[in-house]
Amino acid sequence: MASIQKRLPENVPGDFFVDATCIDCDTCRQLAPDTFREQGEFSVVYHQPDTKDQARLALMSLVACPTGSIGAIERHDFRAGIDAFPFRIHENVYFCGFTAESSFGAWSYLIVRPLAAGGNVLVDSPRFSSRLVKRIAEIGGVSTMFLTHRDDVADHRRFAGEFGCERIMHMADGARRLGIERVVEGEEELCIGDDLLIIPTPGHTRGHMVLLYNKFLFTGDHLAWSLERESLTAFRSVAWYSWPVQTRSMEKLLNYEFEWVLPGHGRIHHDTCENMRLHLKRCIAWMQARD
To answer: Does the model's pTM come out above 0.90?
Structure first.
């Protein structure tokens, strides 16, 4: 729980606040941009919620925060934030909330699919919460857990134990050591259903992969939207394995069409396939200039 004694002085006066344990994961700023913004290496409250919708988004941010760094002075029914997850992004794709500190607040997603099509897919793991598990169970549970890379596995074991789902991960990121049921090898694409395509994209880590589901591309730490550059981007400072290899992996994505980029870290973006391709080409040129 957030501590009023550690409340950051940059917060505006009022009910909601962020304390000094914030790790600047950006979750609250994405969920509730009317309330939270970046201040140095932290998020802070720059505008107190003054509508019911803003208050709900602030409570969702409080629940999703991986470090419990968001607090409120007044009494609230926190179920408004808890029961909002999984939160629908578009069509049958949801954000799980409950981000994990062990994954530095990485976002996890749920694809809701009929059992006849293979069932629901959990993309990376959120923090384990009994309320979240209950809600996911109500909408069909989890049949498959796709883990993009080693950094964002969080509570994968507990979710796998709860739902009895098959986990998929690349061998080069230690999948066998983690007891993963389906281990991917090499860099060839792999179909795991009529609508699911695994694309190995080494660079951030040796075994990083992305998942293409129809028009949705789940990108882990490989690709995200940059508000500053107004284009797709990658993160050179955290290319743990190889920036040149990650650049080549980025070029591979030019072979695919998608309208959504849903990263573990960084901003979500939606656009036409044509514009996504233009942004991707711009990102690749930017990366090549930094080799």
So the answer is: yes
Q: How many CB atoms lie under 10 A from the CB of residue 275?
A: 12
How many alpha carbons fall within 13 Å on the CB side of residue 282?
14
Residues with Cβ < 8 Å from 26, sequence gap 6 or more? 38, 43, 105, 265, 266, 267
How many other CB atoms sit within 10 Å of the CB of residue 226?
17
- The CATH topology of domain 85-288 is Metallo-beta-lactamase; Chain A (3.60.15)
User: What's the DSSP call for residue 100?
Assistant: -
Q: Are 63 and 98 in contact (CB under 8 A)?
A: yes
pLDDT one-digit tens code per residue, 146-162: 999 999 999 999 999 99
β-pair type (70-72, 87-90): unpaired
Domain ranges of the chain: 4-79, 85-288
Q: What is the DSSP string of 117-168?
A: GT--EEES-----HHHHHHHHHTT--SEEE--SGGG-TTHHHHHHHH-PEEE
Per-residue pLDDT tens for 73-128? 999 999 999 999 999 999 999 999 999 999 999 999 999 999 999 999 999 999 99
CA distance 205 to 242: 8
Q: For residue 229, what are the β-bridge partners?
A: none
Domain 4-79 annotated CATH 3.30.70.20: yes
Q: Which residues pair with 75 in a beta bridge?
A: none
